[in-house]
Amino acid sequence: MLFTGENLLTTLVLAAMVLLPCLEIVLRKFFRTGVPASVPIVQHLVLILGMLGGAIAAREGRLLSMATLTTWLKGRWQSGARLVANSVGGAISALLALSSWPVIKFSRQQGSELAYGIPVWVVQLALVIGFSAVALRLIWHAGGSWRGRVGSLVLAGALVAVGVWQPVDPEQLRLPALILLLVATLLGAPVFTTIGGAAIILFAALGEPTASVPLKLNELTTSATLPAIPLFTLAGYFLAEGGAATRLVRVFQTMFGQFRGGPAVVTVVVCAFFTSFTGASGVTILALGGLLMPVLVAAGYSERTALGLLTAAGSLGLLFPPCLPPILYSIVASSSTDAQVSMEQMFQGGLVPGVLLMGMTAFWGIRQAPKELKGARPFSAREAGAALWGAKWELLIPVVALTALFGGFATPVEAAAITALYAFFVEVVIYRDLHLFRDVPRVITECGLLVGGVLLILGVALGFTYFLIDTQVPDLAVEWVTAHISSKLLFLLAVNLLLIVVGCLMDIFSAIVVVVPLLVPLGLAYDINMVHLGIIFLANLELGYLTPPVGMNLFLSSYRFQKPIPEVVRASFPMLIVLFVGVLLITYVPLLTTALPNWLAK
User: Fold this and answer.
1) Which of 349, 403, 357, 359 is nearest to 596 (CA)?
2) How many Å apart are CA 103 and CA 451, to the nearest integer?
3) Cα 581 vs. chain centroid, distance in angstroms?
4) CB of 63 within 8 A of CB of 247?
5) What pLDDT does residue 317 have?
């Protein structure tokens, strides 16, 4: 009953986030009015969605972690590792819930209202409820028996007691606490508890209130542009769960499949299309791998070559609108520093570099193609026309998204809502691939799970970033780097190497929130264009998806195609080199990034 209620509430929240901005556009256009307080309502619904989705992700055991050690452990060792990881994660979640109370208390004292007489603090209760639910579910999953769960509860309770009553000077506890947190991370603790736990420990060691962490989560989730992220993600989920993949593969297969390397071009284009909507979340490899692998193998590609191509293509659309990382980069870069980078500028700057990376990947795929294409059918205008006609509504989705985003009649959030509503209409009403009452709630809940897990990471990462700024780490970094690196070209090379490492060790969303406030002041010190720096940043993180030992695409391909990690690494290594050359071109030829935004600005 509880699980059904959570799923239903998630569905209602996301549905309201889609419908309110769309209704706002209609009323503004035809009646010159709007829905009272629709903007703050949608912003605060993101907070509720984030905590709901995080609780559901914890319920399903799908909170993102960086653990690789547990894959080598068996039996009691694996059970012990899970006990420690979940106990520490549960303790950190409980401390975040306790740290949220001062935020709620302050809002209650201020007496501020959201709309229609609803106090803001009532919505902020989602922080306490959400973190508490995550804590309890982590402890529940710590063991397969009551003995293990009780042991986890005792251990987590002891850690919370130490954090609350502080029997020892917090400064003396800082190093042991950070070591324990590192061990728990290696054993499988969720990423958000790693970053949030580090922020809590460091704030406590300085004698500062730990409420800064949930406060930053509240500020992030209620920001003006952030609702675009879950809405564009929802559009991507409708496409991935419907029949869009099959129809789009058919379109590009009929157009390019008869040429040498045509299947590789099909793979690159379709993967980039899906990633631009799913936000490089892994949905692309999981949704398209089963469709595209047989196409490549049937065309004569070796299984190893096909595996490497699919692994690399899984994040190719990361620079294209309406992908989530450029949106998040513009939010973080503009809010944490004096640099102003708009979402529109980021998408304009990423268009040519994105096409470059696609072209280089496709070229490699063409070079690897067999000289005689197996099973290829001659081009048929009739068949191509039928495929285009069959997928016409899905092929229009980028047009709808870009027109709404850059047309001037809708805000970014409204553009995202229009795109999500259009994707819903296409997959549910026109093609009927998704049943309204059976499939749509499941798809929306799955989207909410992903968004909630990501927003938890983003929120606590912003709290950690606040600690770095509060302790003047960016200023010290600028001072040290400018004193030791005088060449702008050498600085850019150092940035590339650093970001590749960051990209393979951190998920892209937390990397943006943690690293961008440190990187942007350095870019300003070297007089680097902020859009160019942003595209360099994202292109390197895209490369990080392929970088061993823990590049995300390597694990996703291993899971999807049931191949050992070393085999996936060997298969994708040539693509790693190809894309690295592309990243260097993007880095040292700024016109690739800046020419289009500058031309459009005129």
Assistant:
1) 349
2) 23
3) 25
4) no
5) 86
Per-residue model confidence as pLDDT tens digits over 118-161: 899 999 999 999 999 999 999 999 987 888 899 999 999 999 99
Structure-token pair, residue 26: 């209609």
Tally the C-alpha atoms within 13 A of residue 280's C-alpha that lie toward its C-beta: 31
Higher local confidence (pLDDT), 387 or 289: 387
| Category of 280 on φ-ψ map: left (φ > 0), alpha (ψ -120 to 50) or beta | left
Contact between 341 and 566 under an 8 Å Cβ cutoff? The reply is no
The residues, any chain, with a CB within 8 Å of residue 45's CB and separated by 6 or more, are: 13, 16, 17, 227
List, in sequence order, every residue forming a beta bridge with 65; answer none if it has no partner: 190
Q: Are 437 and 456 in contact (CB under 8 A)?
A: no
Place of tokens 């629709």: 38
Q: Could you identify the residue written with the tokens 């998040």?
A: 328
Sequence-ordered list of residues with C-beta below 8 angstroms from that of 297, at least 6 positions apart, any chain: 303, 306
> How would you label 291-313 residue by residue, b for 16+ Cβ within 10 Å and e otherwise?
ebbebbbebbbeebbbbbbbbbb
Inform me whether the pLDDT recorded for 602 exceeds 90. Answer: no
Query: Residue 280 above 60 pLDDT?
Result: no
Query: What token pair was written down for 396?
Result: 């229009």
Statement: residue 100 has pLDDT above 60: yes
Q: Which helix (H) or strand (E) holds 122?
A: helix 120-140
Among candidate residues 66, 507, 555, 582, the one with its CA nearest the CA of residue 316: 582
Contact 546, 503 (CB under 8 A): no
Tens of pLDDT, residues 319-345: 988 888 898 888 888 876 667 788 888
Residue 186 structure tokens: 């290696």
Q: Judge whether 130 and 52 are in contact, CB under 8 Å.
A: yes
Which 3 state secondary structure label does DSSP give 114? Answer: strand
Q: How far is CA 263 from CA 107, 251, 304, 313, 318, in A?
A: 57, 12, 15, 13, 21
How far is 402 from 353, CA to CA, in rounded Å? Answer: 18
pLDDT digits (tens, 9 = 90+) for 249-270: 888 888 877 777 888 888 899 8
Rounded to the nearest 10 degrees, the angle between the axes of helix 75-110 and helix 212-221 is 80
φ/ψ (deg, to 5) at 119: -70, 150
**H helix count then E strand count, the chain:** 27, 2
Residue with tokens 């090379």, as numbered in its chain: 493
Residue at token pair 């620079």 = 319
Helix (H, G, I), strand (E, B) or coil at 119: strand
Extract the tokens encoding 568.
Answer: 């996936």
Task: Give yes or no for a cis peptide into 322 (omega within 30° of 0).
Answer: yes
Region for 296 from its dihedrals, namely left if φ exceeds 0, alpha if ψ lies in -120 to 50, beta otherwise: alpha
